[in-house]
Amino acid sequence: MSSVPEASLVGRLNSVQVRSAERALSVGTWLIVAGAMLYSVLTVTPLMAAHTPDEWDWTAPILPLVVDAAVVIVVRLDSVLARLGGHGGSWPVVLRWMTGAMTLALNVADSALRKDLVGVAVHAVAPLLLIVTAETGLAYRRAITAAVAALHAEERAEREARERAAAERVEAAERRERERREHEARLVREQREHEAQLAREQAEREERARREQREWEEARERREQAERERLAREREQERRERERREREEAEQRERERREREARERRERQERAERAERERAALLAAGPATEKLKEEQARARVRAAFDAGLPVRSAAELTGWSVGWVSARYQELREAHHPHLVAVGAAGEETG
């Protein structure tokens, strides 16, 4: 993160230095060109005036000015082409060297004609300096142009890097935002799916509980129905058993009743026969000659009552008085027919 501002600062410093160097080169080059042009005009004009008709002396400065103008054109255009990174081909080189050679020849011609070697050397300084300065300036400008291009490329690369970094940051932010939204959407979707799953599970549990409740109720109803059927069968069986027992008991009671009645009939018959025998025996004894004992008398009174004998006959059989026998008859009648006695008593009271 800190390398980008640092590289940008270095680039700005290099750009300032390059502009300062280019300005120094331009100023120095033009100073040298101006000085060389002035020196060349001052040096060449006398030579041209010496070799020009007198009426044309005023044209003497034209040739050095033309040559120096060509030098200015070469220097200026070379600086522009170098700044633009272009190359004019071979003709600019020819023009540059030709103007340089012309300037050198014009400046040293007068001394050379006088065979003044020192003058040649002195007058060759400015042209040679101009020629070398032009070539050096061109090389410097090309180097500066390359450096400026490199700086521009570096700045462009830094700008593109910053733009890429910014784009990456924006893309990363958008990606994070997209991932955040996707994560939130996934969480919402998972929450909804979880809630739907819980709802389905709750519905399944409720359905299972209802089904189990229904099955339990059906099983309970079946058990209750089976229990009712079992109880009904048991009650039916108990009823049948009870009816059978009641029938058997009724039959038993009927049988016992018939047996009892038969036994009672036999016993009554036996008692009747025995009583009949006893009565016959008592009645067969005839009238008593003397008063019998009370127990014997009562037995004969009973036998006479049962036989329907009158009170007097019974009194003769017992030897007791008619009143006593009548009282015993009354007791026997009360014992056999109490309701008749009660009715008779009620009639007697009414009479």
Key features of this structure:
351 residues; mainly alpha; 0% strand; rod-shaped; disordered C terminus
Structure description:
The structure is a single chain. With 351 residues, the protein is mainly alpha-helical. Among the domains are: 3-178, no CATH class; 288-351. Helix content is 89%, strand content 0%. It has helices spanning 3-50, 62-84, 90-113, 117-284, 294-307, 311-318, 322-336, 338-350. Helix 1 runs antiparallel to helix 4 (117-284). The longest helix has 168 residues, at 117-284. It starts with a helix and ends with a helix.
Set down the secondary structure blueprint.
Blueprint: H1 3-50, H2 62-84, H3 90-113, H4 117-284, H5 294-307, H6 311-318, H7 322-336, H8 338-350
Radius of gyration over all CA atoms, rounded: 87 Å
Shape field: rod-shaped
Average predicted confidence as pLDDT: 76
Q: Which segments are poorly predicted (pLDDT under 50) over 5 or more consecutive residues? A: 340-351
Please give the oligomerization state of what you see.
single chain
Distance between the termini: 157 Å
User: What order do the helices and strands follow?
Assistant: HHHHHHHH
Number of helices, counting only DSSP H or I runs of 4 residues or more: 8
Sheet with the most strands? none
Structural class given helices, strands, pairing?
mainly alpha
DSSP summary, beta strand count: 0
Q: What proportion strand?
A: under 5%
What share of residues is helical?
over 70%
